[in-house]
Amino acid sequence: MSKLAETVKKHVDVIKRRDQGELTPREIVKELDRYIIGQDSAKKSVAIALRNRWRRQNVTDEIKDEILPNNIILIGPTGVGKTEIARRLARLAAAPFLKVEASKFTEVGYVGRDVDSMIRDISDLAVTMVKAEKAVEVQDKARKMAEERLLDILIPPPKKSQYGQQQQTQTDENQQSKIEEEHHTTREKFRERLLAGKLDERVIEVDVPSDSSPMMQVFGPVGVEEMGMNLQDIFGNLMPKKYKKRKMTVAEAKDVLTQEEAQKLIDHDAAIREAIERVENSGIIFIDEIDKVSGEKGKGGGPDVSREGVQRDLLPIVEGSTVQTKYGMVKTDHILFIASGAFHVSKPSDLIPELQGRFPIRVELKSLGEEDFVKILTTPQNALIKQYTALMQTENIKLEFTDSGIREIARIATEVNEQVENIGARRLHTILTTLLEEILYDAPDAITDKKITIDDAMVQAKLSSIVTDRDLSRYIL
């Protein structure tokens, strides 16, 4: 099974668990704890929001359509886990997930993206997701069809006699039958060798679809993308599909042809319908930097006019409306919106009242301290120390961090955050990169010691001079 197939299979298993109600709020929090340290109140809120989606799906009365999602605003400084919570939540729910930055949008009449584009983007993601799942379902059948195509390339079928069927003599017919029988025998021998992998390294020529379709650019007023249609797709379908010959090994051709046959076996219309249904009922849109489009009250004029315009454009999407996409109409009534922002300058109450009302749940995330950094470095499955240890193993070097070394890294991260600017856990990336820079550089050809220990003395020796020099720490850490 290919890596893509394995990933999709895991994704399908998660969907089954979700649909069967196995993801309880406690289970959701437990899964989030594997990747995110602290922020218990935020985890609890998103877990309840996710469970409420399953509860709504199982409501049988007419009130089902009236149950709206409780959208959430996550408030806290950068690097405390706001984006990671939303991303892990979507992965946990196997739901279409899109992250957008509010500052990229502008109100109608200004240069920039319109807010409807987020619905078009999440629809594209969902269609790709569903088609990948459908392709895995037909993988076995597609593989057999690909094998037949490969055998046609390796052993081309015999040409028919040049005479018509009625003009053929008995001798011609016997000869043609003998040729076909010999071809069948040879083909079966090659089939056995193909399935055994004995032909994998042979190079063959394969006809693959050409991507060199003519590019089409439409020049028009801002907001032309509201049409929700891809003109290139429309005109591309009117022209015959072009193919080009590519040389590749049999093993590579097997994968290419299997995917091509799988696409032919998929019911694309059914996949699109399922994708739209997923977007409408389980889609999650994470709107980052929402504080950037909320100016302080009483300071109107200038750019603030555009900021308020973005909020007013966002309102119908969050409130529930219908957006035209190239796959059809998509309703946004039951999409879960999670917004986040540092709110250093402005406050959530500076958002327009209507938009505030559409985000009833507000969770404040705490700033991270030294103890949190120690846990972040060691506890999560994707902890930074585990990542660097795995990287160095590829050079046959064993990297070990002592408890005192880890604590010293956490202490320095906390100190720099307090003195320079608080960027949360992202500070750990810069500190570890600076700390291990020489090791990472010298590892392939200049390090003979196959075991390196990172303790507090080494951390201080490498970083103390940078930390004490305010100007250096500002630019390096």
SSE topology:
Blueprint: H1 3-19, H2 25-33, H3 40-57, E1 72-75, H4 82-93, E2 97-101, H5 117-137, H6 139-154, H7 170-195, E3 203-209, H8 231-238, E4 243-249, H9 250-265, H10 268-282, E5 284-288, H11 303-319, E6 322-325, E7 328-331, E8 336-341, H12 353-357, E9 361-364, H13 370-378, H14 384-393, E10 398-401, H15 403-419, H16 426-435, H17 437-442, E11 451-454, H18 456-468, H19 470-476
Parallel strand pairs: 1-8, 1-9, 2-5, 5-8, 10-11
Antiparallel strand pairs: 3-4, 6-7
Walk me through what this model shows.
The protein is of the alpha/beta class and 477 residues long. It has 3 domains: 3-132 and 270-364, Rossmann fold; 139-161 and 169-265, no CATH class; 370-472, Helicase, Ruva Protein, domain 3 (Orthogonal Bundle), CATH 1.10.8. The protein is built from 19 helices and 11 strands. The strands form 4 sheets. A 5-stranded parallel sheet has the order 2-5-8-1-9, with helices on both faces. A two-stranded antiparallel ribbon has the order 3-4. Strand 6 and strand 7 (328-331) form a beta hairpin.
